Amino acid sequence: MDSRSGIYSGITRVPISAVAQFGYSVGHILNDLCSSCWFTYLIIYLTEVLRKSKDFAGVLMLVGQVADGLATPLVGIAIDKIGIKIYGKRKTWHLIGTTCVAIAFSFIFHKCFGCEDSSELVQQVYYGAFIVMFQFGWASTQISHLSLIPVLTICRKKIVFLNSVRSGLTFVCGIAVYILMWFLLHEYGSNMEPLGPGDSKAFSYLSLIVIGTGLTFSLLFHLMVRESSDEELSAQVDEQADLLGPKITQRTIRCWLTNKKFYLVGLMYMFTRLAVNVPQVYLPLYLTSSLNLKKESIAYYPLMMLICSVIGSFLTRPLSKYAGKRITYVLGAVLVIGSSFWFQFQPKSNACPTYGATALIGAGSSIMLIMSLSMTADLIGVHTNTGAFVYGSMSLLDKISNGIVIALIQHFHPDHCTPVDCPTARYYRYTMSAIPGGAALLGAVATLVLAIAAARARAQAPDSGSNPGQIQQAEGSNSNSDVISNPVREIENNSQEQ
Question: How far apart are alpha carbons 199 and 48 in whole angstroms?
Fold first, then answer.
């Protein structure tokens, strides 16, 4: 066995070079930068800076998430079928998505151009149109980028590595956004507390810098990464089929829809995204409303959370190696649940311990996200012909659920504070406690059900030691090992040398 050729000896897939690994890693930076702005600052920008109603902001967030959710599986199907052949189907859609994101995002964090004094309905249509365009582009870039992993490498250690670096850079992008926001609020924001219309220039500059930086890294991605053609991939799959057994068929969309593990992984991914995104949206409002911190706190507390997320992302590889992916995921969920209790009982009189809660939820959500992506890649395995559909379906549940949850939170938002009572402060405290903790708990349950299903599949697999292909098809995802079977035990040592 030569790990540089793939999982098994004799497979001739070209090894992924260091240049291609770097190029792939930075190919999602534009999306990551925009996502940090979208989830962390859209609600607070619309409600506190533009002074729009809570339902106005909630509806726009829901429109964006629904548009993203509907576009994601459609784009996933299109990526598997349509594209420029000589350039690569996935890279074609990545280019389309990047263009849409850059154009649309330029207008979202700016005042309504030409309609600033128009009715709220007119402005809602204005922002909604650009949000739909942005979300279509974001989905195109995300799914095309994710679905490249099984095309670039079939080594599971490389898959974990690429997902770790990709997710690590996601959080690095968040750190950059929060540092930049901190600086812009200080330099271009108003001198008044709390956050208000005088701070609009800081948000506008933030969006323009994000677009310029993201486009630079997207260019590097397209220059450094080469996507194999369908003919090359088919030849590699045929060669792998000869090694693994007489028959490994590519799965159709119908096959996925009848696969129970497909739905379990989808639920796990959905709960993971809720645990990641809801705190990102409501942490700034929790800080300014529940704890009455100054407006710069919407930059440096999320910064702390993202720093710990980066640390968590680089811990996933050794943790998954020794404990397995599913156990590592559950450990991340435990950290998120612990942070939820901390947010609930954090006293207003001493806000410093809040750093501990943000550290826990940052590290825990990062571990959960990386492991969920790795288990999704394991589910796909060699069935790369419909890989984009799988990622698209996972994201469909993610986007729709996030949009509905955030819209409901906005709709049931209580009235403003009075000198006697402040229901808003309690409301955001409950939001930061119940939703991330509950989502993490449900994600851990889905992961444990997956573990039980995999154990049953291994027990029922006939002659499991003689046909690795049967084991892979029976389990779909084996999170506790880095190889499908052990025809040669030196696989693990060779893979570690990569």
Answer: 10
Token reading at 110: 């700016």
Cβ-proximal residues to 400 (8 Å cutoff; 6+ apart), any chain: 65, 66, 69
**What CA–CA distance (Å, rounded) separates 74 from 56?**
27
- The DSSP secondary-structure symbol of 286 reads I
Q: Is the dihedral of CA 446, 449, 453, 455 positive or negative?
A: positive
CA angle 112, 97, 225 (to 5 degrees): 145
What predicted TM-score, i.e. pTM, was given to this entire model?
0.75
Which has the closest alpha carbon to 201: 49, 57, 51? Answer: 49
pLDDT band at 360 (very low <50, low <70, confident <90, very high): very high
> Which whole-number Å values give the CA distances from 239 to 243, 251, 355, in the listed order?
7, 17, 52
Question: How many residues in total does the chain contain?
Answer: 498
DSSP letter at 250 equals P
Helix (H) / strand (E) containing 282: helix 260-285
- Provide the token pair at 182: 């901190």
The string of pLDDT tens digits covering residues 75-123 is 877 887 776 666 778 888 999 999 999 999 999 999 988 888 888 899 9
> DSSP letters along 424-443, please?
HHHHHHHHHHHHHHHHHHHH
